User: What shape does this take?
Amino acid sequence: MIKPLKMISIVTKTYSSKRPAVLSLLFYLSTLFICLSGKPAIAQHEAPDSLLIQAAKAIETKQFHKAIYLLNRFPDRDDQTHFQPQRAKALQLLSEAYNKLGNKEKAYEYFERYRFIKDSLFSLEKNKMISQLKTDYETEKKDRKIAEQQLLLKKDEVRSFRKQLIIWGGIITGMLVLLLCFFSLAGYRKKQKITKKIREQMQHNYEIQQIEAHINGTIEEHKRIALHLQQNAYPVIGHAANILKDLQEKDPVLGHSESFSETCQILNVVKKDMDKICRTDQHEDMRNKLLSSTLKAFIDNIPQSRDLNISFNYTGTEIPLPGVYVLHLTRIVQELVQNVIKHAAATEANVQLKYTAEQLTLLVADNGKGFMHPVQNQGMGLKNIKERLDTLKGRMMMEQVQGTRIRIVIPLDAGTGEKS
Assistant: This one.
C-alpha cells in the first residue's frame, strides 16, 4: 500500500509542470486528505501498548479490519532482530483477526511468526534466567569463598590471639611466680633477721636482768649492812664517843693521857667511817616515788613487840616525790623510830604524813618519857637528821607533851613533785 503523502508528492511532481490549476486542486485535496486521515496518522506514532489495547478492543467488538489496520501500524512488527513481548502480542492479535475474517493463510503465517517469537522469547527468558542463576550461583560461590576465607582468617586470628594469650599468660605467671618467690625469700630473710634480733635482744635483756639482779642484790646487801650498822653499831660507837667526851670534861688529867687520846681518835675515825657507810645509800634511784608506801613498808617490817605498838597514816592528796626526798625522809623516820624504841620507853607510837599544796608535814609522836636534855645532848642520830633536813630545806620542831612529838615540815615547790 502507498502512503497518502508519498502519493500526493508523486502526483504533484508529475502534473506541476503541465497544469497549474491541477496543482492547486491537488494541494487542496491533499490538505483535505491530511485532515481526514489525521487520526490514523497520529495513531502510527502512538505507543505500542496503546495500539495493542485499541486492537484488542476492536477484536472484542468484531471490528477486525480496524484491528488489522491498527496492528499494521505497530512499529517494527516485522523486525526479527529484537525480541519483544509487545511484538509477539501484536502478531497474536493479527493471527486472531485474520482467523475471524476467514483468511486462514494469513492467520497461520502470523501465528507461526507469533510462535517463533514466543519460543525465542521463552528461550531468551530461559537463557536470562539461567544466566541470572549462573550469575547468582557464581556470586554466591564467590561470597561463600570470601566468607570461608574470612572465617579462616578469623580462625587464624583466634588461634594467633589464643597463642599470644597463652604466651603472655605464661610470661605473666612466670613473673608472678618469680615475684612471689622473691618476696617470700625477702620475707623469710627479714623474718630470720627479726628472729635473730629478738633472740639477741632477749639475750641482752637476760644479761641486763642478771646484771641488774646482781647489782640489786649487792645494793640490798649493802643497805642491809648499812642499816644494821646504823641501827646497832653506829649508836653504840656514838654513845661510847659521848662517854669518852664526858669523862674528858670531868677529868682534865685523863685527857692528857696518851692512851685515852689515842682511844678517842680511834673512835672518831671509826665513827666517821661508819657515817660514810651509813650515807652511801643516798645516791640510789632518783625516780619519783610515793613516800607513804615506803614508810608503810618500813613500819610493817619492824619486828612486833608486846611493849610497843607503832601505827602509820597519812592525809591529803599524795604526789610522787623525787627519790632523794623519799630516801632522806625515810632515813629520818627510821632514826626517830629507833630512838623511840631504844630511849623513849613508850607503849604507843604514831607516824603521820600530811600533804598540802605547799608543804609536806611529817609527825612522829610517842607516849614515852621523852628526852631529858634534847638540845644539849644531841647524838649522832639527831645530827644526821639535821643534815638531811638542811639538804631538803626543811625544819624540825620538838615538843614534849605526854611524851615526845617531833614535827618535820618540808616545803614543796613546783618542781619537787610530779602530779599524776
